[in-house]
Amino acid sequence: MTTATTGNGGPYSAQSPLGAHASTVQRTGRALPFSDERHLQAHQWLVEEAYILDAQHYDEWLALIADDIHYIMPVRVTTAVGAGYDSAPGMAHFDENKYSLGRRVARFQTEHAWTEDPPSRLRHHITNVRTFATGDPDCLIADSGVLLYRSRGDVREPAVISAGREDLLRRDGDGWQLARRTILADDSVLRTQNLAIFL
């Protein structure tokens, strides 16, 4: 994944009502060297986030999320070369802001979260991390691949989701916060019961 834009060149967030207030900061230049301190910090942030999601410490995860977050996972479609798009316009598996993410987390703490009771066993594998500077010195773009292994119960087949992500990380004091995430699945049809988890 080279950039989180639709086939017509516009950012996915710009196509969504919930993305209207998302940061429009974009990458500049070539990928940062792996030895760059900013790359090392971003890579560590992604790995730490993966451990938090695997442990399902969702309140802790929300603390890593910026107030103007846009979290979107467009529905992929299969099209011919030159079609100019690879996702269904106006459709997304996730299209979230900070409020809706918070409501989903709050529901996990009630007796009504039957899709995650008992909870899934999760493993987020993060790989192919590349980072890019932006026009804002306090922001980085991080590209990564994520492979989610999800097992629930004792008899159902496990689910595997492969995707690419583009994240906007914004400096927050001594750390970083996630200000935008675009997830592009490698399948047009997701082979999982539901998406009551986070990528």
Protein model, in words:
Strands 1-4-5-6-7-2-3 form a seven-stranded mixed sheet. The relative contact order is 0.22. It is built from three helices and seven strands. The chain has a single domain, classed as Nuclear Transport Factor 2, Chain: A (Roll). The protein has 199 residues and is of the alpha+beta class.
Question: What key phrases describe this protein's structure?
Answer:
7 strands; Nuclear Transport Factor 2, Chain: A; alpha+beta; 199 residues; seven-stranded mixed beta sheet; 38% strand
Topology of helices and strands:
Elements: E1 27-28, H1 37-54, H2 58-62, E2 65-76, E3 87-96, H3 98-108, E4 121-134, E5 139-151, E6 159-172, E7 175-185
Parallel strand pairs: 2-7
Antiparallel strand pairs: 1-4, 2-3, 4-5, 5-6, 6-7
- Structure annotation, total helices: 3
The structural domain count equals 1
Strand order of the largest sheet: 1-4-5-6-7-2-3
Question: How much of the polypeptide forms β-strand, as a percent range?
Answer: 35-45%
Mean pLDDT, nearest integer?
88
Shape: globular
CATH structural class: Alpha Beta
Helix content: 10-25%
Spatial extent as radius of gyration: 17 Å
Strand-and-helix sequence, N→C? EHHEEHEEEE
- DSSP summary, beta strand count: 7
* CATH topology description: Nuclear Transport Factor 2, Chain: A
Q: What ranges have pLDDT less than 50 throughout 5 or more consecutive residues?
A: 6-10
Biggest sheet overview: 7 strands, mixed
Q: Given the helix and strand composition, which structural class is it?
A: alpha+beta
Level-2 CATH architecture: Roll
CA-CA gap between termini: 16 Å
